[in-house]
Write a structure and sequence with these properties.
6-stranded parallel β-sheet, 6 strands, alpha/beta
């Protein structure tokens, strides 16, 4: 038994280094209702369907209390809808600028295809949102064999497993132990664990790291080592089976997983869960 397919996340994993497009828009829409958010708060639910992301933000005790104080009532689903209505057009306006593939993505995907692996993709974006990103990424040379968005699986996005299952169905992948999911958020790891596939976290370019490429390059070796170790720890505690620093390390990680499969290890027997 060997790995046959890779399911890649989009923003923060294969494009949009640091996952900044949605972060900025979340900050903007809450600023508009006079409830400023921190970057850290915005990144906690990253990877979820955007409506769910807004709901999770509003459920955070500090933000929920701020909403209560501002409007003298608790938030409702109508408030989530209104914020989402503000979010979508703002994001669509900037998404074409965030389709450039992250370092090593194009070369690594080409290498994996040469080895016969299928390339799928999942996201927290809707189909409309992803169409802008996918078009821009394609111009740079990155295009998965298939991609699935939450609205294509009845809005059952992460942490549900259905986007992965739909990729598996469309790509003809037969066994979940032969599938690897790579992502840059805790939601990605949860999605992989829910689907029973191998969960791999990526550090550089990730929402978990939350730094621009220039900021990463300006780190001292010791700063970089400490930050990478912190992100790795968070992924592993969330149930990841492994962590890569960047996409160039993915082929070697797949070979390690193939060895684990040869030793009869399966992803759903993850000791970290």
């Amino acid at each position: 038994m060997r790995i046959e397919g890779i399911i890649l996340d989009w923003a923060g994993t294969t494009v949009d280094y640091g996952c900044f497009a949605p972060v900025q828009v979340f900050l903007d829409i809450f600023e508009e209702i006079d409830i400023p958010l921190t970057m850290e708060e915005v990144r906690v639910p990253m990877g979820q369907l955007k409506w769910d992301h807004i709901q999770t933000l509003l459920q955070m005790p500090r933000i929920e209390a701020a909403f209560q104080e501002k409007f003298d009532r608790s938030y409702t689903e109508a408030d989530i809808d209104e914020l989402h209505d503000r979010f979508e057009p703002k994001l669509l306006a900037i998404l074409p600028q965030y389709g450039k593939p992250n370092p090593y993505v194009v070369e690594t995907v080409h290498q994996l295809r040469q080895q016969g692996l299928k390339i799928g993709a999942t996201t927290g974006y809707t189909s409309t949102m992803l169409s802008f990103v996918e078009k821009a990424a394609k111009e740079y040379g990155y295009e998965p064999d298939h991609w699935v968005t939450p609205d294509l699986v009845m809005d059952k996005g992460r942490p549900y497993p259905y986007m992965i299952y739909e990729n598996m169905k469309q790509l003809g992948l037969g066994h979940h132990a032969q599938v690897v999911k790579v992502g840059d958020t805790i939601s990605d790891i949860q999605e992989a664990n829910s689907a029973g596939v191998w969960a791999i976290g990526i550090v550089k370019g990730s929402s978990m790291l939350g730094l621009t490429e220039a900021e990463v390059e300006s780190l001292s070796p010791e700063e970089e080592r400490q930050i990478i170790a912190g992100v790795r720890k968070n992924y592993m505690e969330a149930g990841a089976h492994g962590v890569i620093e960047d996409m160039s390390q993915l082929p070697a990680m797949i070979e390690q997983i193939n060895e684990r499969l040869m030793n009869k290890e399966l992803p759903y027997a993850n000791p970290h869960q």
